[in-house]
Amino acid sequence: VLSHNLCTVLNVPHDPVALEEHFRDDDEGPVSNQGYMPYLNKFILEKVQGNFDKVEFNRMCWTLCAKKNLSKNPLLISDEDAFKVWVIFNFLSEDKYPLIIVPEEIEYLLKKITEAMGAGWQQEQFDHYKIALNTSREGLSAWELIDLIGSGQFSKGMDRQTVSMAINEVFNELILDVLKQGYMLKKGHKRKNWMERWFVLKPNIISYYVSEDLKDKKGDIILDGNCCVEALPDKDGKKCLFLIKCLDKTFEISASDKKKKQEWIQAIQTTVNLLRAGSPPPHKEARQKRKELRQKLLAEQEELERQMKELQAANENKQKELETVRKQLEAAAARAAEEEKKRLQTQVELQDRFSLELEREKMVRQKMEEQVAQKSSELEQYLQRVRELEEMYKQLQEALEDEKQARQDEETVRKLQARLLEEETAKRAELEKWHLQQQQTIQMTEAEKQELENQRMMKEQALQVAMEQLKQLELERKEALEQYEEVKKKLETAANNTKSWKDKVAHHEGLIRLIEPGSKNPHLITNWGPAAFTEAELEERQRSWKGKKATSE
């Protein structure tokens, strides 16, 4: 029956043939040679895949052992709460048989329950309990832990319901891996309406139910490293919104207030970060760290005990060696006393013999002291002379240093004078160069000045010649104007005469017209009419002017 029930709970196929083969009948009984544990390990536990309900498995184990071991004393917790405490004990107990829970884990569990009840932790009370516990044993068994929690020693002032709710909250966190749970509104994917759901956050999934009794499950939100959670602004009359993005779906959720919204966002983000890092849930990781710390402390304590034993053994060996040395010293002291007695006798004999030698030694020492005094006086004089020589040597050194410094200063001044002389020579050469350049510039300026003066004289002479030519031309112009006036008068007189003559001829002869000889050369036309000179006459006058100009030059 036990094997069949285990196979049913663990989802392992039951093999009655293997059971009969393992527990075959023999003369000594059916289970005397073939124990149950080998069968359990080989045919049941090795076939477990992990896809079974751990709570149901724990309930079966609780059913097998609770009736026999549970205390008959009245407790402040129910049988269901005792079962949950028993399961928590199996999670927090040490990995060795018989199972016990150490004081550190007891303190951790009681703190969690106290925090869940909303009460203050009484550290001083637990320290007294821990001291009393450590004096008798290493820890508590599962039934002793149930008695401790059921007795109400660390939950005074709390009713049964509050204690039960606290145990249930710790059970959900440590055993069911419930990181957070509570009511929130969820927006539907099809109808787009908002429905209140009971959400349960676990390390890799968020499940939501109709109510907190977890009977009617409505769906799951599978979490992985690619998921993310974001806060949303208020919209459609809904407040405290946030969004959970997964690979295939997106979920819009509304919390009851801003604090709940922030708590859920932080819890979901922490869960996603743990999935990305491949880390276990926080309470399991903390349990592992506490266990490693205890193992480390235990190893250090064992090492300390081993060292103490080695020191104790070494101390015992030292005590034995000291006892042996003490005995050897006592024997040596007896021998030394005997030898001292003999030495005293020998000393009395030698004392008389050495007294004479002592007298002689005194005389010799007196002489040596006189010699030493004389040598000391000589040595003092020698040292005085050495001190005087050292003083003279120091003065000589100082004089040499002064002379060396003076030479260095003289060399510096000499170098400075040489540099100033070189600079003066260079400046003098530069000044001479500038003087030569100035002389050359003055000479060039004088030559240019003389040349300019010559040019000026030539230009003045040319100007005088030009002025004379201009005066000559002015005279010629005046003469030409006078000639022009004379010719003009003559022309007017001739014209008047011709006009009167023509009038007379016309008057006397009627329409008879005289034929007059015309000029062979074309007449020049000016602004006042026909010119007084012909072109040939103008050319003649131009040649005459050019000849006069050449003669004057």
The fraction of residues assigned to DSSP E strands is: 5-15%
User: Which strand order spans the largest sheet, edge to edge or round the barrel?
Assistant: 4-3-2-1-7-6-5
Q: What is the residue-mean pLDDT, rounded to a whole number?
A: 82
Main beta sheet: 7 strands, antiparallel
Radius of gyration: 71 Å
Shape: flat
Q: How many helical stretches?
A: 12
**Series of H and E elements:** HHHHHHHHHEEEEEEEHHEEH
Q: Please count the beta strands (DSSP E, at least 2 residues each).
A: 9
Helical residues, percent: 55-70%
Subcellular location: Cell membrane; Cell projection, Lamellipodium; Cytoplasm; Nucleus
InterPro entries: EF-hand_SWAP70_N (IPR057836), PH-like_dom_sf (IPR011993), PH_domain (IPR001849), PH_SWAP70 (IPR057837)
Organism: Callaeas wilsoni
Main location: membrane
Describe, in plain words, how this protein is organized in 3D.
Keywords: Cell membrane, Cell projection, Coiled coil, Cytoplasm, DNA-binding, Membrane, Nucleus, Phosphoprotein. The chain is an alpha+beta fold and 553 residues long. Among the domains are: 53-158, no CATH class; 180-279, Pleckstrin-homology domain (PH domain)/Phosphotyrosine-binding domain (PTB) (PH-domain like, Roll), CATH 2.30.29.30; 379-415. Helix content is 67%, strand content 8%. It has 12 helices and 9 strands. The strands form 2 sheets. The protein has a 7-stranded antiparallel beta sheet, with helices on one face. A two-stranded antiparallel sheet has the order 8-9. Strand 1 (180-187) and strand 2 form a beta hairpin. The termini are far apart. The model is unreliable at 509-515 (pLDDT under 50).
